[in-house]
Amino acid sequence: MKPLVAVNVDLRDFPYMPLDVVRLRDSRLAAVTSGEGFRCAVLLWCASWHQLPAGSLPNDDALLSQYAGFGRSLREWKRHKAEAMHGWELCDDGRWYHATVAEKALEAWAQKLYQRYRTECSRIKKAAQRADVSPVYPTFEQWEAHYLSSGQERWCADPVPRLVPGDIEHVPRDKGETSPGTSDLRPPGQTKPVPRDTPGVSPGKCAPREGKETFKSKSITPEFLKHTESHLSARASTMDGGAIVEPTVAGRACRLMREAGCVSTNPHHVDLVAALAEGVTPEALAETVREALARSPPIAKPFAWAVATARGRHAAGPSEFPGVPRETDQPRESLVDRNARRAAEILGRAAAGESSCTGHAGPPLARSPGGLGAQMDLDAR
User: Fold this and answer.
1) Which of 244, 327, 332, 342 is deepest in the core (most CB within 10 A)?
2) Distance (Å, rounded) from C-alpha 100 to C-alpha 142?
3) CB–CB of 113/147 below 8 Å?
4) How far is C-alpha 47 from the geometric centre of its chain's CA atoms?
5) Is the dihedral of CA 330, 331, 337, 338 positive or negative?
6) pLDDT digits (tens, 9 = 90+) for 271-317
């Protein structure tokens, strides 16, 4: 008798085995065997699930005794062997096969192969998007024959052209509800379009290359940002049939802010969009970023600070006298400095009154009941 399962069926990475409840409940095994024989039979099913090929057992009483839970007690195993091996048949390859277990193993193996096939189709789709070509999918039968003959999951019958070295390797944002190239050429069995699942690259950011260096790295410099911006602008100029794509106001503001030294920007930020709608100019935002970075210590989040500060200054309007900073721009006097200044003024007036007391025609200086401290507390209030 030929083996019921091919030799390459491997389910050792499947921790669960399907159990047909009604089929087992109404089977002859559950009706006529003893409790010990039923226990051994179920344990042998579980052991065969992770054998190679799946659904088979070796023709060795010592191993079968171990699998059935008797350990080295071959005498106990032989007492229950007839009941435990119910439904098993010895095939030409010298191994035992159970028809029901083999059926479940083949179903699980087919699901495993189909999942690997879908994973390979996804890889082909992404590679085609990067190369800007239409994807070509193999059928499941073609891929299965290739996998069983070569042992390789990667489909290489029609290789997709590789990217030019040095290019920014990111998948562009899908422009419609369906990914490019998948409306007419879908993998077999796929009935619905593939939704958009690839995030786009926002202005000023590029996909990280191989390695750990990203835009959050400490090695990012303004020169690197300018170089990246010029590279992206050169790529954008070739879009839409060669017509130059003009940046939006928010994109221009972010570019000026990055040139001013702000590493992280977001053209879709709600505060930035609101500031531009209120009339704040990109140049004003860039100048505010320079002011934030020139402080000691520099502002930790210059983008948010610059947007909020520029909006506040724009809402306050221009200063009354040209060249004179507005009151909101001047640093506020602290409570300690104010008390010290008031104390100096009071002491100065007191000293001036004592030095001219002989020729003073007016009433003497009145002292406050609480002294200088009370006067300073009143000023603080």
Assistant:
1) 342
2) 28
3) yes
4) 40
5) positive
6) 998 899 889 999 999 999 999 888 888 888 899 999 999 998 988 87
Q: Is 334 helix (H, G, I), strand (E, B) or coil?
A: coil
CB 196 within 8 A of CB 177: yes
Which helix (H) or strand (E) segment holds residue 89: the answer is strand 88-90
The confidence score (pLDDT) of residue 353 equals: 75
Question: Residues, the chain, total?
Answer: 381
The first and second tokens of residue 116, run together, are 């690997």
CA-derived radius of gyration, the chain: 40
- How far apart CA 55 and CA 95 sit, in angstroms, is 10
- Amino acid in the structure at residue 227: H
- Are the CB atoms for 160 and 133 separated by under 8 Å? yes
CA-to-CA separations, 211 to 131, 146, 172, 208, 247, in angstroms, rounded: 22, 33, 21, 8, 30
The residue ranking higher by pLDDT, 213 or 85, is 85
Please state, in angstroms and rounded to a whole number, the distance separating the CA atoms of residues 375 and 381.
10
Assess contact for 119 and 24: CB atoms under 8 A.
no
In this prediction, residue 43 carries a pLDDT of 93
Handedness of CA 90, 95, 101, 103 (dihedral sign): negative
Q: Which among 129, 128, 34 has a CA at the least distance from the CA of 84? A: 34
Q: What whole-number distance in Å separates Cα of residue 292 and Cα of residue 299?
A: 5
